[in-house]
Structures are given as C-alpha cells and as structure tokens.
Amino acid sequence: EADIYQTPRYLVIGTGKKITLECSQTMGHDKMYWYQQDPGMELHLIHYSYGVNSTEKGDLSSESTVSRIRTEHFPLTLESARPSHTSQYLCASSDGAGLGTEAFFGQGTRLTVV
Amino acid sequence: AQSVTQLGSHVSVSEGALVLLRCNYSSSVPPYLFWYVQYPNQGLQLLLKYTSAATLVKGINGFEAEFKKSETSFHLTKPSAHMSDAAEYFCAVTGIQGAQKLVFGQGTRLTINP
Fold first, then answer.
1. Burial A78-96 (b: 16+ CB within 10 A, else e)
2. In chain A, which end has fewer C-beta atoms inside a 10 angstrom radius, N or C?
3. pLDDT in tens, B70-79
C-alpha cells in the first residue's frame, strides 16, 4: 500500500501569491520527485531529491523551488504565482534500494492561477 | 539519454476487444520499463514493470507487456477490454544510473465503447 499524500488536492489562487504544495510519504523512501503534468497529459520532471538536504533541478525548467529537510517531506514553493503555472503537480517517491524499483505517486494537486 | 514514444495519443476499442497500447523506448543503458495507469483526477498507479527478468511481464487488472529488445518495444496488452479500463496509460523508462528518474511517454488515452 502506497502512502504518499499531497495537499491541497485543488487550489485556485490569484496572480502574485506565494504558494506551497505539500507532499509527504510514510514509506521512508530516500528519493522523491515532483512532476508537472500539462493539459496534454505529458509528465515532466521538475525537481528531485536523493535524500535529506539534497535537491536537484529536473528536465523541465521551473520557477518553483523545493526543500528536503526531513525524509518524509518534500514541499514545492512558488514565490509569485502566475497563470502560466496553472497545471497539475504530481509528487512521487521511491526507495531506490534496488535497480528498477518503481515510484509511488500521490493523487496530485491541481493548481489554477487566475 | 533515455526516451519513450507512445504511438497513438488516443486509442478506442469495444468492450471485450483486445487492447494494444504501443511503447517504444530509447536507452543507452539496459532499461527498466514501466506501465502506469491514471484515472481521472488521480495520481499514477503502477500496472507492471520490466527489470531484466522474464521478458513477458504480467501486471494487475489482466494487463501484460512483452519486452522486445530487437524492436526496442514494450507494448501493453489485455485480451478483453472492460469499461473500467478507460483511463490514461503511461509508459516510462529508467536506467541504472542517476537518480533512477522516470522518463515518461506522452501518454495514451484509452476509451472503451459499449
């Protein structure tokens, strides 16, 4: 049973506001990821982390930032939201203990910036 | 570098018919391949994965996929479609290096006709 949680599920916010999308997992996984999913379904990696105090940019450039102070928590922050940030954001984690281990996904946060 | 191409952004089949979703990969290292399913307003759920053991992989909900190195393919099949199979399907690849980041295809929307 995968235990990875994202809050909020849906968020509508005005331009210029600062927002934080929360992601927590209770599986003790070292690796965590943020994906952005556009309306055409495609998923793009925007941030990942190998473990505590480790964060890296993903393949798609993003104005968001992340932090990894605790193993279980990997929040994503937008300092000033813009309509171009409107998207679905999916958080995932994997234990990476063996090769080919799968990633477990949260239910996603659908962000709309107006 | 690794990439995945899913042929057909939208596939429509009749209930009870064969489901075939196509995935071709490109990888400079031995690949690990995954199929995920996404239901509306949900995160991604693992259907099955290939990790260099058996080339024919069986997953949940009656799905299976066959790894064919000569064709660089990992197509997903199900003998008899059910209405509940309607969803988005994503093929993904990761390698033995790096943070085991998943690289996704663009997704295929499966519609089941009654």
1. beebeeebbbbbbbbbbee
2. N
3. 999 999 999 9
User: Which among A43, A48, A94 is the top mutation candidate for probing chain B, defined by the most B β-carbons within 10 Å of its own β-carbon?
Assistant: A43
CB B2 within 8 A of CB B28: yes
How far apart, in whole angstroms, are the C-alpha atoms of residue B4 and residue B6?
7
Which of A35, A42, A92 shows the shortest C-beta gap to B106?
Answer: A42
Nearby residues of B19 by Cβ (< 8 Å), 6 or more positions away: B11, B13, B63, B76, B77, B78, B81, B85, B110
When CB atoms are compared, the residue of B32, B42, B102 closest to A99 is B32
Cis check for the bond before B31: say yes or no (omega within 30 of 0): no
Cβ–Cβ of A103/B102 closer than 8 Å? Answer: yes
